[in-house]
Every structure is written in structure tokens, then in C-alpha cells.
């Protein structure tokens, strides 16, 4: 079975960035605000048809947050954030869940909005890269998730229909995009994340433990 995993927040814990945001803004809650701003930035890039590297968008979102709160953001701060993103630790349940899937012969793909080189470095640093049969980035199609092109790219990579893929993510927008492209979906309820209970067919499975979630997804 083909399982496709989002990376940031799904497998990697962005909570590790909290100390940076507390230093800059006086509260680690600013990290969530920054990530929402980052999402808005790449959604806008999709809408206007202009693709920019993920790291540039991350820097831009930090500058926007600084301007909003009257905090001066230096170039060094931007680079410190980018380096910290590349060094995010894995969530406690990520490795065991991926190992379980590999042991049972499933095909695992990482599909991320991060740049390809950055994604490899992220997963290497987190000790997860060895579990994946393929690591794919949206930069190959010049469109960020939740546009359909990244999900179709994953299917094309393996020469299968999108209906043969299961997308696992901690973001409702990611799973809505995957579902619209024909994938089945599994929602991992990371802290602070929730799905609209009235969405109906999205997701097919959900849990707050990754191992349980993937067990349910493949036990069909």
C-alpha cells in the first residue's frame, strides 16, 4: 500500500521553534501565528501563480509578523529560523509508526512544501529519512499543497492512480486538497490541530496517535 506523509507538523515537531519566537516576541504563541502567516503566503503564491522557495516564504512570514507586532527582525534572525526548521525533531511517535509500516512492506513517500534539498536535510536530522522510499517536494511542480499538482506528482512518481494513495497529515487544508485530487486521507491530530467535524468524507481516518492511525488506514 502507498502511504504519503506530510512533513512539517505531521512528522516533525515545530514546537521546537517556540524558544525562538518567545525570544523575539515575548511569547511562544507567536510561532503558531507565524505558521498561519506562512500558510497564507504560500496560498497567495498559488492563487497568483507565482512560486517562490519555501525558505523565502518562511522569512517573509517572519518579517510580516515582526511588522505586525512592532518587532525588528534582522537578517540573522531570518537565517536562524531557517536553520532551526532544518533541525526540527521528530514527534515521539513518528519513527515507530514508519518502522511498523516498512516492516509490513508498505511504500512510504514524504510529500512536503519544503524544498527538496531542505526536506532531505530535515528528515536526515530527525532520523527519519531511511524509512522513506521517496522524498518529494512541491518545487518539482511549482505549486504548493493543497493544489492538486503535488498529489498528482506523487502518484505519477509511482505510476499509480491517486486513488491508490493515502495521504497522512496534521492539516485540514492538506487533506482537503488530497481528497479533491482523489487520495484517501488520514488526519493525525497533533496538538492544536483539528478537522471540521462536518466535512463528511474528509478524513477517512483520524487519531491522535500516528501508529494507531496508520494501522487503521492499512487494515482494510
Structural commentary:
Helix content is 47%, strand content 12%. With 220 residues, the chain is an alpha/beta fold. It is globular and about 50 Å long. It has nine helices and six strands, in the order βαααααβαβαβαββα.
- Count of helical regions: 9
What helical percentage do the residues reach?
40-55%
Question: What is the tally of beta strands?
Answer: 6
For the record, the count of structural domains works out to 2
Let me know the CATH homologous superfamily of the largest domain.
HAD superfamily/HAD-like
Write the CATH fold name of the largest domain: Rossmann fold
CATH class of the largest domain: Alpha Beta
- Measured between the Cα atoms of the first and last residue, the distance is 10 Å
Radius of gyration: 17 Å
- Beta-strand content: 5-15%
Report the biggest beta sheet as strand number plus sense, adding barrel if it closes.
6 strands, parallel
| Rounded average pLDDT | 96
Ranges where pLDDT stays below 50 over 5 or more residues in a row are none
In the CATH hierarchy, the architecture of the largest domain is 3-Layer(aba) Sandwich
* SSE order: EHHHHHEHEHEHEEH
Structural class of the secondary structure composition? alpha/beta
Physical arrangement of strands within the biggest beta sheet = 3-2-1-4-5-6
> Tell me, what's the shape?
globular
Catalytic activity: an (S)-2-haloacid + H2O = a (2R)-2-hydroxycarboxylate + a halide anion + H(+)
Keywords: Hydrolase
Organism: Salinicola lusitanus
Enzyme class: hydrolase
